[in-house]
Each structure stands twice: as structure tokens, then as C-alpha cells.
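Weekly puzzle thread! Below is a chain. First person to post its structure in C-alpha cell form gets bragging rights.
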Amino acid sequence: MRLILKIAKNELRNLFYTPVAWFTLIVFWVMCAFFYTHRLQRIGPRMYSTAKEYPYLPHVNPGTLTEGFITGPGSGMLSDVLQYLYLFIPLLTMGIISREFNAGTYRLLHSSPLRLRQLIIGKFLGATFFNLFFMVMLAAFMLTAAFDIKSIDYGLLVSASIGIFLLLSAYTAVSFFASSLTRYPIVAAVVSFTILISLNKIDALWQQYDFVRDLTYFLSLKGRTGRMLKGLITTRDIIYFMIIIVMFVSFALLVIKSSMQQTSRYLKVGRYLAVIILCLTAGYFSSRQNAIGYLDVSAGKTNSLHPKTQQRLQLLDGAPMEVTLYTNLLPPDPNRQYAFIGFPENMNAYLDLWEPYRRYKRDIRFKYVYYYALAPGDSLRYKTFPGKNLEQIAGLTARAMKIDASLFMGPEEIKKIIDPGVLGYERGMKITWKDRSVYIRYFPSKTGESIFNGVEATSEPPFNAAFQRLAGARMPHVGFVTGQLERSITKTGEREYAWLNELYPLGFDLDTLNLKTQNIPADITTLVLADPKQELSAGVEEKLKSYISRGGNMFILGEPGKQNVLNPLLQQLGVKLLPGQLVHPSFHNEPDVISCYETPFIYGLADEYRLSINRRLMKVTNYRIPSGDTSALVMNGVAGLSYNKDSGFNMAPLIMTIPEKSWQEMGKLVQDSVVPQFEPQRGDLKAHSYPVAIKLTRPFKGKEQRIVVTGDADFASPLRLEGNAYYVRGIFSWLDYNRNPAYTLFPFPRDNWLLMTPSWVKLERLTYVWVIPSLLLLLGIVLLVRRKRR
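Winning reply:
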């Protein structure tokens, strides 16, 4: 070992006293300085001025700057540096072996007590030790970032450092091998670049062939450091780098040994094959899901499934879970995300999506079913391929996509297994556990995401609901009253509620109830009465009042002009839709567009991401009622509400109108001529502020009865969907006692702000981009000149 370290020390000295080494170090520093200070210049002054104007923003900014600014793949400084890192190592090591051959010193090994493997390992360690200079430079910027970023995530920095050092060592091993192949350093550098580029691109090769798919995917360098840059350290990635290092250093040893010994060609080939087989075998077994160990060092554990998701996965212990992916060769929208994720060439990418779940449930099995079918009325393919039948169209499409057409079932075959209509004639999955199955049309995505984006759900809450269904949990049953021309969940008009079917993947079972012919089932957990346009019959009204008397939860949505329809029912609650219609004349909007503000009560309804941000904002600021004409929330066509505090319910307003801006217009509202005026003589009424959405609670037989009433049914329609979807989901969550959706809010990031003044940003840029590189250049010149004189 002493000889190895001595050789490593000598090799490090030789590298340190070469112009190429100083050139790469200076260029590397300048590159890091540019990427780091460029981000500071772009973001730092803006954050400084924003914090001066809005002092509360540093407390509520949801972005993590350690990842987004330093380590984040595709966004941080280190990800930019990694794009060019492979250019430096070959320049350093291109002559590390060849100079021994050119100088003839390798012949001394025949008479030296030094063994060949000691020489190889010593030289490799010397080159690896030089990589520590690159790491010291990166550490300098990480240390600077620790002063620039509030509460920086040190776990991310450590994980990223480990990943980058392993990557540098792997690059060194590859370049070390390339140097052993030729006596010409430039050729060695070119060979190094070629191997490194191949290792980064090999994951895209031959992915359609089962035999080599896993092999080429495993050998790829791409993304190996990506997980570590995010704070997730896995044994698979660590072992991969070790295998690459051992394999290429062994290749270098075999190359040099072959040049010094006369051996048969078969023995030489056998040695290489032995190294390859041993390394790939170790890589294969270390990359099996059951053999992978994980360590999430991020501050918020955002690389791991949320504890709620882990708990729901534990419900499925005791039996394997099977995921069957159905992929249509002829989907309605071929450009849709993940349209062809199930095809053989994309199979590993599909499995990567599931890795966070496979980490906690190791016995997930995957099946793949390929079919072709067209949605009813879809004639586009027939126009594209005139004169061809469906089977011929599928064959031509498969040939164009370079896929074996025999993999795909026809429409009749697939209908024996599953109705393509359940999947929307697109890709979709069936998850099976024991004797239960759930169909889903969405895919997993990165962990740490708390936002639900509609039917194309990619965050954890919809998967939590699917796991609950598989475990046989009783899901909330929401009934939508019909029969009086209410808003419908089966219609897609701009005033209808079809979009609420997105509540199903979040864990709600939806149903329609015509109370003229049906009774309210006992398992209904929430009843929705949305803008009935006909007066409720005595029988319907009695059923609704009886449901309320039994402690049932309700969501009641009214509209101006429907006071006579809903007030007889609301009277039981102590609530009333006020007569007339609220108006709010404004320069920018029609008079029936009412500017409103959210009360603190609405923020506490659920752990919906947007509501949670506002909750935090409310804590760090003194909550103030808005007084201007504009607000984050507007409602269109609104009836005001009043409520009686002695009704037996505890009442709290969720949404109020901006004070002193609105009144009750009693006459007919004309919007296309003059601006309406407040006219008390015509019966117009004006209050300081009107509640337009309220919540009601009361204790009832050991539980809390919950009801929400709004004076605007468009509040939950597609007309206001973009701004109100999270309110509506929050209301349904509150009505279900916040059991569903299973929101997965992660800890709020503490490293969310830069602590810098604009003058400090300029000083850092001047120091790092100009002063320090100049000092490094001067130091290098002095050392090289002194070395030459000696």
C-alpha cells in the first residue's frame, strides 16, 4: 500500500506541475463562477427589491433555492457544470500512461519489485486525488451559497458532492483506459470523449429488444448523478460508479499486461470477457428492486413518498400488486403526454415513473397489453389512409413506428379483456390487488409534488385513493340532486359540473339522485344541491329537510332569482338568499362581476396547496380585509346571504364582498347601457359587506354536521374553474372531514430566499469571475516557472 500511495503522490505532483492542469482548473473555476453569479445577477436584486416592498414574501415563497439555484437537475449551477465536466478529465489524463511508453520507463517494470497492478492503481489514485481540486472549487461556491441562501439545505450539498466526485472518478477511469490504448495523447483524448459520449447515449440504443434493454439502460451514465443532485442516494448508483471504475481500470491493466507479456489471443479475450461478465453480473443484481437501498438526505424528504402514501401502501401488504398497462396504437391524441409510454422502447422509462412506489412495495408486478382501436366517430385515420381497413392502418402505423404489428390486439380481441371506452381509447392502467381492481388513466411523477392538476393527475393524492379502493376502504359517496333542472355532472357545458368527475380519482364516488323518484341512500356522505331552477316539490323538500335533520352534510349553491326555490329549505338552517342581485360597478368589469375576498376560515378548510400557502401568509402577516376594487377572487352573478346566529349552527363566512362596494339591485339589471346606480327609492339595499359563501357546523350524535352555502352556482362551474378549483376541492374535502383527498403537503422549504444586496451581488461577480481566476493564473505561472528552473 505504501508503494501505491507513493506512486499516487508522484503522479499528483506530475499533474500539478503541467500547464494543462492549471488551464483546466482556471477554466473550470471561471465556468462555475459564471454559472453561479449569472443566477445571482438575475435573481438576487429582484428578490432584494421584492422583499423590501413585500416583507412577508420570504416567509411564503414555496421554492427551494438549494435545489433550484445550486443542485437542481436542469436548473441549478451544478447541472450546468456537469454538461461540460467530461471535457476536462480526458485533457488531464490523456498522457498518464502513454508518457511511460514514450519515455520507455515501462521496461523497468521487468526488473523492478513493483508489480504492474500497483503501478496502475497508484497512477489512477493520483489522477483521482487531482479531482479533489475540482471538488474544492465546487465546495467554495457551495460555502458561498450557504451565506447567500437562507437556511441552505446541507444534505443536498453533501449528496451532490458525492455524486459529482463519483462521476469525476468514473470519467477518470474511462480516460485512464483510453490512455493505455495508444502512445498519442490526442488520440487518447478522442477515444475518451467517444467512450463517454457513448455511455451517455447508450440508454437509447436497442430498447425495443428485451434481451439487451436492461443491459444498455444499466450501462448509461445519464441521470446517475441526477438523483444525488436532488438528495437521493441509492446503492444502485453507488455500485454503478464502482463497477465502471473497476471495469475500466481493469481494462487498462489488461492492455498494459498484454503489451508486456506474450499470451494467446484466446486468453486475452477471455480475461476481458471475465471482467465484463463479473461487472455486469454485479450490476444486474445490484439494480434489482429488492436489492436497492435508499437514503433521502433532503431537508423535506421530498424524494420519498409522503408518509400518508406510505401508510396507504402498507394497506396492501400481504399480497403482490399487479399493474397492467394498456397502450393503444391509434389513440385519439397521439401527442398527449405518455401516449406511447408502454411501448417496448419506453418500458424502462415507464418503470422509472413507478420507482418511488416500488421502493416501499417491492412486489409490484407489471404487465403490458397492446391493442389498436378507434373511438366511435373517429374518422381521421381513415382519411389519412384512404382505402385501408383498420387492420391495415394499424400495420402501417406500427411499421412507421418500427414496432412489431403482431404485438397488438384488434378491437374484438381487446374487448374480451377490457372495454377500450373505460380507458378513453388511450393508454391506461389497471391496478389489481387480491380480487380487487382499479382503473386509472394517470401516471406517477416526481415525489414532493403537492398540486393536483385535474384528470391528468400526477401527484400522490389520486394514487392514495386508488390504494384505498384496492384495500376495500369505504369511500365518500357524493350525491348530486337532479329533477329540478340543477347543474349536472353529466353535461359539459360552461355552466355545468362535468369537471367534478375529477373528484373520483381523488377518492370520491359520485352519483346522481332524482329525489322525485328516489330516496336519499343511507350511505350518502355529502349531498349537493346546485342551482335548481324549478320550485322543490313538497316531497323533495321533505326528503332534503329530513336528510339535514339526520345530520347529513350538504353543499348548496344558489343563484340570483332563485330565492323562492331555495329559501324554504335554507330557512331550516337559519340562512337566507337575500332578494335581488349584488352589483359592483367597475371600470374594468360588468356590474354583476363582484370583487370578493377570502376570510381566514376558507384557508382552514383543507390542505389544498393554494389554501396552505394562504394559511401561512395569514400567519406571518396581520390579516387585513381588502378595501380596493380588485381582489384575487371574483364572482359573477351573485346573491348575497344572511344568516341567523341563533339557528343552532355555528356559522362562519368563507367569502365576503369588498366592503362598501356592492349593493342589492332590486330592479332589472341592465348591463349594456348606463352604469347602474344605487337607488334606495326603488328598494335597493346596501350593507357594509355581504357574505356570498358560508360554512355551517353543529355537533350531532357524536360527529360534526357540516354544510356550505353559496350565493353563486357559477362558483363551481368551468366559468371560474381556473381560479376556484382549489376552493371547490377544499370544500369537498372539508365536507368529508378531510379524509379525502389524501393531501400530501411536504414541509415548507426554509431555503426559499436570497440574503443579498445588489452591491454584494456585484462584488461576488467581480471577485469570482475576474479576481480569483487572475490570482490562479498568476500562481500557476509562478509555480511552473520555478519548476522549470529547477
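Puzzle host: Confirmed. Bonus trivia for everyone else. The radius of gyration is 34 Å.
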